[in-house]
Each structure stands twice: as C-alpha cells, then as structure tokens.
Design brief:
Elements: E1 4-8, H1 13-24, E2 28-33, H2 41-50, E3 55-58, H3 64-73, E4 79-82, H4 89-94, H5 96-116, E5 121-127, H6 151-169, E6 174-180, E7 182-184, H7 203-212, E8 218-221, E9 233-234, E10 236-238, H8 239-254, E11 262-267, E12 273-274, H9 275-286, E13 292-295, H10 310-315, H11 324-339
Parallel strand pairs: 1-2, 1-4, 2-3, 4-5, 5-6, 6-11, 7-10, 8-13
Antiparallel strand pairs: 9-12
C-alpha cells in the first residue's frame, strides 16, 4: 500500500512543488487548500509534470467544521505536511489578528483531527523568522530564539511551541519542523512557480514582475544596513530543493528514523546573499537591466541572516543543489511562461 500524504495549502507555491516531488517518489497525495492565495489550475500543471492529478478538496483549515467534515471522510493518511498559513511579514504587522487567528487556529484544528484519527506524523512549515535578528551567524538549530520582529514570525514560534507541547502530551504523534530560509525560483518545466496575488511581498517575484513590465520599478527597502554593501542579507534556496527536503522529512518519520518525537531542521544554502547581489544575479541570467529605487526600510525586516544547514545535510541526507543563478533563471522562465 502506498503511503497517503495530506498536504494542507497544497496548491500554493511551496505546496505545489512539494506535491510534485511526493508524486515523483511514489506517494499517494491529497491536497487541500482554501484557494485564498492560489488557484485550482495548478492541479493541471502538476498533472503535466507528473502524469498524475492529486486528489484535491477546497478546505479552510482554520474553519474547524470545514476541516472536521473533510477528515470524517478522509483520514487514512500516514503523514500531514502543514503549509496552510498566511505568510507575509509586512502584512502581518498591519493585520496581526488575522495572522494569529488563521495560522494558530488552523494548526490547532489540524492537531485535533490528527489525534482523533491517530495520524502519526506531522511535517510543519516553519521559518527562519523564529530566530529574529541572531547575535551570531550562521544560524544553527541551537541558536536562541529571539523575540519575533513580526506577528508572522511569532505565529511560527508559537506554532512550534504548540506542536512541542502536543507531542509531549501525546506520544502517538511525531513531528518535524522545517525552518525555511528564503525559497525562490520555480520548477524547471516553468509550469509551476510563485504567483502572488497583488503586489509581491517577496523579492524575486517583484524582480521578475518588474523585468517583464508588470511593475514600473523595483523598490529596494533600505541600503543603510550594517552589511558589506548596505543591503539586507538573506539565504536563498531553490524551491525544488526545499520541496525535496519535505520528502526527506516524510520518509524519516514513516521509517521511524527520527531521533526524538519533535525534531527541527534549518533549510538553507548556508550562503548569505545581499539584495543587491540577488538583483545582479537576475540581471546576469536574464540579460535584463532592472529599474529599481532605494526606499525606506520596511517594518519587520531583519538585517542579515543565513543558515548553517549541516544538521539537515547529515540527518536528512539533504542539501541544496541549485545555485542562486539557476534559481533566478527558473524564476524568469516561469514569469515569461505565465505572460504567454
């Protein structure tokens, strides 16, 4: 029997790429999503890439009745990967209650159903925002968690605490939290990629939309940071590499190779890249000169962060494979494809 995997937020950016990798590894995949930041057309794209359309239902995980109805009819899953969440640092500062209600309620609802139906394994989509602005770099899994600089980051900190307490009280559930750094790029087929609703909050779709003419200019938030070139530094990793880490985490749980009931892994390249270096990488691979303007710093943005991914490299047998230039190239191919 194939292991059945439930992916919440499964039609979103990272969820859809993870669905492709799970299908390619032979898993039986079911996706649920409320389509607040994605569309059903991604299912056809997954079919074009893999030859399989995953089962899909429109479900709002933050709505307890909605989720309960789904689980009453679908509960033979070995593992849940939980992506479904609001994810903008900047928006969360403007709408904190929306973020606390959605992100925490959805997790609590999901854990309740997992306990009810004895679904053993959870892979949780966490974030490097839990580290705040670290005192020392690169960040390891043992780096202290600082007060989050945004409600979004705080929901990831609290989410991890909720899972830790749940796992401690109920040993039938095992969990892995994956702390992502900055996912970018698109599937090499250019059939799935990042497609934000409205003005992009993340750098790379803002870059590609500016390059193709959807935006007049790219706004760069601050050039007076205490970094070598004055721009914020982040750790960018290709979304397909990130998706593959979820497959590794699922296998680790199913095969019982986890070393504790709740494990945490940093997922990053281990390289710090400034915003200007990212812009230059895009210009290099696309041949497009970007129009950009320096504006004020953005609330909630930290100065610099990058990962030490050695623990994930060793324990998950995973590491990033694509370079920054390769990731930028796929992001640009995706942007050009959706313009067609």
């Amino acid at each position: 029997m194939k292991n059945k995997i439930l992916v919440t937020g499964g039609t979103g950016y990272i969820g859809s790429h993870t669905a492709v990798e799970l299908v390619n590894e032979g898993f039986d995949v079911t996706l649920i999503d409320n389509l607040s930041n994605s569309g059903k057309e991604v299912l056809n794209s997954i079919w074009q890439i893999t030859g399989i359309i995953p089962d899909f239902e429109i479900v709002d995980v933050s709505n307890a009745n909605n989720l309960r109805n789904f689980f009453d009819n679908n509960h033979d899953f070995s593992t849940v990967i939980h992506f479904a969440a609001l994810k903008s640092v900047n928006e969360s500062i403007k709408k904190p209650l929306d973020y606390y209600r959605n992100n925490l309620t959805s997790l609590i609802n999901l854990l309740n159903e997992m306990k009810k139906y004895q679904i053993a394994n959870l892979v949780f989509s966490s974030s490097c925002t839990v580290y705040g602005q670290p005192d020392s770099l690169p960040v390891t899994e043992n780096s202290p968690l600082k007060p989050a600089t945004s409600p979004y980051g705080n929901t990831k900190q609290i989410g991890e605490e909720i899972i830790r307490d749940t796992v401690s009280s109920d040993t039938s559930i095992k969990a892995i939290a994956l702390r992502y750094f900055n996912p970018i790029g698109a599937h090499h087929s250019a059939l799935i990629g990042e497609l934000p609703r409205g003005t992009p909050e993340n750098l790379v779709p803002y870059i590609t939309q500016t390059a193709i003419g959807l935006r007049d200019e790219l706004k760069v938030f601050g050039n007076d940071y205490n970094t070598p070139d004055g721009y914020c530094i982040r750790d960018y990793l290709h979304v397909v590499d990130l998706a593959k880490a979820h497959v590794a985490a699922v296998k680790r749980l199913i095969e019982g190779k986890n070393k504790s009931d709740f494990e945490i892994f940093n997922l990053g390249s281990g390289k710090g890249v400034s915003v200007m270096e990212a812009i230059q990488s895009f210009e290099r691979v696309s041949g497009v000169k970007l129009k950009y303007r320096i504006v004020e710093r953005r609330a909630g943005d930290i100065e610099k962060i990058w990962a030490n991914p050695e623990y994930a490299n060793k324990e998950l047998g995973w590491k990033t494979e694509s370079s920054l230039d390769e990731a930028m190239k796929t992001a640009w191919e995706w942007e050009k494809n959706i313009k067609l």
